[in-house]
């Protein structure tokens, strides 16, 4: 009996020491890959920067943190002769530049969004449009994930095959997400425009092996959690190729479902809940960023 108590004590000590060394020792990082589809996929998949249709995204690293973002340009601007991808693409490229220049605080992803948006507002080049946005920051040393989400893009954190954290969707009313906007002076009152500070933010600890999926609504409107989790089961290790392949299979499945007229998609379900008789997938641009929390190596 004594021996087993001693060995248990030793195991406990090792676990505690292991735990301690984990909190102060190793830096974490994200191994990330992206894949997506523009709704009008004749254009070729990638435009300037990382854009799929009117969606845009970035993956950037700095000494202290890994940062990712997705944005979904609001398509309605096309009716006014404005290319919706300009706004989302410029917003993401600006966020990426701020990160690479170290002009951000890891614990404040809303700040990255705010600084970028105000930079666009002061831009000498006239830029019009609107976009949702989601920013995810891994602080390497503290092992904390800090997030900011404005609108209906978002993220999931998956651990042991279950969703342990997720973003909250922000909608003004059905199919009208919160969005950052720059409108022409004559239309300023009539265009929806939310403050970047209205973004929903959260912070929590992550563990090695956690999977982080960041995506635009083109994914979440077409694939329920259980289907996404099924695809994530195929992820066998943390190498880039495996992550890229899984990101691709998730985006492909969402893309196929988006054009299925008989499929009861999450979007159609949401529409029905709002008194609209809708079936089928929701054709949309789809952007998937898939990341795994790993030990940091230079």
User: How would you name the oligomeric state of the polypeptide chains in this document?
Assistant: single chain
> Secondary-structure element order, as H and E?
HEEEEHHEEEEEEEEEHHHHE
Shape: globular
Number of helices: 7
Radius of gyration: 21 Å
Main beta sheet, described?
7 strands, antiparallel
Give the overall pLDDT as a whole number: 89
Helix content: 25-40%
Distance between the termini: 47 Å
* Structural class estimated from helices and strands: alpha+beta
Beta-strand residue fraction: 25-35%
What is the number of beta strands?
Answer: 14
Low-pLDDT sequence parts: 1-22, 42-47
Give your account of this protein's structure:
GO terms for molecular function: metal ion binding; protein serine/threonine phosphatase activity. The chain is an alpha+beta fold and 298 residues long. Helices cover 31% and strands 30% of the residues. The chain starts with a helix and ends with a strand.
What would you say about this model in short?
Helices cover 31% and strands 30% of the residues. The protein has helices at 2-24, 84-100, 109-121, 217-220, 225-232, 240-258, 266-273; strands at residues 28-37, 50-52, 55-62, 65-73, 129-139, 144-150, 154-159, 162-166, 171-173, 176-177, 180-182, 200-205, 211-215, 286-295.
